[in-house]
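Q: What residues go here?
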């Protein structure tokens, strides 16, 4: 590598670099960020490509129980608004402080994916003719959803304080807490009871249009989580002083609080259980997921719970870094086929 190129690479840093200057992608320093970006692009999908006819027919029939409808509605209510919190946090709180071009390229891709996810919930609600007011207000009418959202919004608000800066030790730790709060907790724990519940319908060949969209969302979220973990571990490697024993204890407590919120959410969605899903099993499920996340950011596992849904681990292989669906959603137009009228 020429000296000039080497200097340019060395100058790149994840935090505390240039916020406003042009984003110099080359030479790439954080190749993982670029790989996640390419992976996200390769998995592009749009909600309205997923047919909803079978779901519409089933939803308007008598073949779903009240408990089954309740679970679907609660999860739509949580995800419809949670996706927007993730988008807000990315754009308003994270982007400004991540001062590396490769990572910013990924963040822009991720922000668009969050918009697609919000689109998916609008599309589902419209297709099924659901009460949109009920779905889109659950974040303040359903306490178990409200508590998860408030937990996250506090982390965003801390970074929006006009005096916030990653230049200080406390500020950089607060930033790291935000990344853990969103990538590890929101996208890595708070989404997973919902994924399990909705995919249990898909497995029984019920509400497969919603199920298919959840599979695409889960595939995207797996990449978001993987990027977030690489970013967190990258910041730790460049700034090891931030990862103090006291900070690690603080993160363990934060994750423990989130685990309890997620268990309460799952129990609230599933008061009586449905075929294949017993409410008590979610405590172990959430704990199992949380342990996998802890391992990946170098914290000790806490719960040692077995995975209670073996069928689900066939769908979600948590250890896989890459996408787990082999088929492409759709063929996209090539540039020559684009029409501008
Ligand atoms: Fe999302
Ligand atoms: Fe996400």
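A:
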């Amino acid at each position: 590598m020429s000296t000039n190129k080497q200097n340019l690479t060395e100058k790149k840093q994840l935090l505390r670099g240039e916020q406003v200057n042009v984003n110099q992608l080359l030479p790439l320093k954080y190749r993982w960020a670029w790989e996640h970006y390419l992976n996200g692009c390769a998995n592009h999908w749009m909600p309205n490509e997923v047919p909803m006819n079978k779901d519409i027919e089933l939803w308007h029939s008598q073949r779903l129980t009240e408990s089954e409808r309740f679970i679907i509605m609660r999860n739509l209510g949580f995800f419809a608004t949670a996706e927007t919190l993730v988008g807000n946090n990315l754009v308003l709180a994270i982007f400004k402080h991540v001062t590396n071009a490769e990572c910013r390229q990924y963040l822009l891709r991720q922000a668009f994916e969050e918009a697609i996810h919000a689109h998916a919930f609008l599309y589902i609600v419209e297709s099924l003719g659901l009460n949109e007011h009920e779905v889109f207000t659950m974040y303040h009418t359903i306490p178990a959803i409200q508590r998860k959202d408030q937990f996250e919004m506090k982390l965003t608000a801390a970074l929006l304080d006009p005096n916030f800066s990653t230049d200080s030790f406390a500020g950089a730790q607060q930033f790291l807490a935000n990344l853990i709060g969103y990538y590890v907790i929101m996208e890595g724990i708070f989404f997973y009871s919902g994924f399990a519940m909705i995919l249990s319908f898909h497995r029984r060949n019920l509400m497969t249009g919603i199920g298919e969209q959840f599979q695409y969302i889960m595939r995207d979220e797996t990449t978001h989580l993987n990027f977030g973990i690489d970013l967190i571990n990258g910041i730790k490697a460049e700034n090891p002083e931030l990862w103090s024993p006291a900070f690690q204890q603080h993160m363990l407590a934060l994750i423990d609080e989130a685990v309890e919120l997620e268990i309460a959410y799952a129990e609230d969605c599933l008061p009586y259980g449905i075929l294949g899903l017993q409410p008590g099993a979610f405590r172990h499920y959430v704990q199992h997921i949380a342990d996998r996340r802890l391992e990946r950011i170098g914290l000790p596992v806490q719960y040692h719970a077995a995975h209670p849904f073996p069928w689900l681990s066939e769908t979600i292989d948590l250890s896989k870094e890459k996408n787990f669906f082999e088929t492409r959603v759709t063929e996209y137009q090539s540039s020559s086929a684009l029409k501008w009228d």
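A: Context that may help when evaluating the design: The pocket of fe (ii) ion (ligand 1) is lined by residues 83, 86, 114, 117, 217, 221 (CB under 6 Å). Residues 317-337 have pLDDT under 50 and may be disordered.
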